[in-house]
Write a sequence for this structure.
C-alpha cells in the first residue's frame, strides 16, 4: 500500500483493511517540500492497523521540474489550464516500481494506490489508463508474473469524487485530522488553505456535508 499521509491514500488503506487485507504501508521521502506528510503517513498507518510501515528515501526531487520539490518554483494558488507545475515527473511510476519490488519480496498479489482521476489536479499518472498500463508492465517484469501468478494494481478511488471518497472514509472510521494534504503545510502540519490540494480537500468536505477537520494556518 502506497501511503502518502494524505486524504486519498488514507481512505484507500481503510478500504483495503475493511475487506480484510493484511496491509504493509510504504511512504516515500522524495525531496518534497511538504515532508510533514511523512509523519502523517506514520500516524495513519498505525491508526488503521497496518502490520508494518516503511519509509524509503529516493530523491527524485534532486532532478527538479516541480513546485513540490524545488522551492524556487512557487506553488500556484489558483488552478490553470494544462498540467500544473506541482506535477512531479514520473512520481507514481517510480513509487509503484518501489512498491512492486517490495511486493515481490513479500509475495504480495496486490498493490494499492490512492490515485483519483475525477476531483484531481490533472496529473497524467493518476489516470486509469496509467494504472492499467503499469499492471501490464508488472506482469511482464516480475518473477511472479512470468511464473503465471497475477499481480494487481488496485486503485479503489480512481473514479470517485472527493466528496464520495470522504463519505466512504468517514463510514470506515478514518480520522482525517491525522492526514496532511497541503502542498506547503508548515512543520506542524497546518495547511495553507490556498493551494490546489487544499482547495480540492476543502470543497470535498463541503460537498460531502462533513465538518472539515483540517488545521489551517492563521488567516487561511
Amino acid at each position: 500500500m502506497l501511503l502518502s499521509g494524505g486524504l486519498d491514500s488514507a481512505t484507500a488503506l481503510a478500504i483495503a483493511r475493511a475487506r480484510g487485507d493484511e496491509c504493509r504501508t510504504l511512504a516515500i521521502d522524495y525531496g518534497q517540500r511538504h515532508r510533514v506528510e511523512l509523519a502523517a503517513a506514520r500516524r495513519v498507518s498505525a491508526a488503521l492497523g497496518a502490520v508494518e510501515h516503511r519509509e524509503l528515501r529516493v530523491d527524485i526531487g534532486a532532478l527538479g521540474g516541480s513546485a513540490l520539490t524545488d522551492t524556487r518554483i512557487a506553488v500556484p494558488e489558483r488552478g490553470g489550464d494544462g498540467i500544473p507545475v506541482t506535477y512531479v515527473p514520473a512520481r507514481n511510476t517510480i513509487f509503484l516500481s518501489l512498491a512492486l519490488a517490495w511486493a515481490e519480496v513479500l509475495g504480495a498479489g496486490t498493490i494499492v494506490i490512492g490515485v483519483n482521476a475525477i476531483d484531481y489536479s490533472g496529473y497524467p499518472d493518476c489516470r486509469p489508463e496509467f494504472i492499467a498500463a503499469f499492471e501490464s508492465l508488472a506482469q511482464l517484469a516480475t518473477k511472479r508474473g512470468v511464473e503465471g501468478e497475477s499481480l494487481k494494481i488496485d486503485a479503489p478511488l480512481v473514479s470517485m469524487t472527493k466528496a464520495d471518497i470522504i463519505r466512504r472514509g468517514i463510514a470506515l472510521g478514518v480520522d482525517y485530522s491525522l492526514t496532511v494534504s497541503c502542498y506547503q503545510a508548515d512543520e506542524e502540519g497546518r495547511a495553507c488553505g490556498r493551494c490546489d490540494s487544499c482547495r480540492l480537500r476543502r470543497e470535498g468536505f463541503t460537498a460531502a456535508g462533513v465538518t472539515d477537520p483540517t488545521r489551517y494556518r492563521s488567516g487561511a
Notes: The beta strands are 24-29, 52-57, 110-112, 152-154. The mean pLDDT is 95. The helical segments are 7-18, 36-47, 91-106, 128-141, 143-146, 162-171, 196-208.
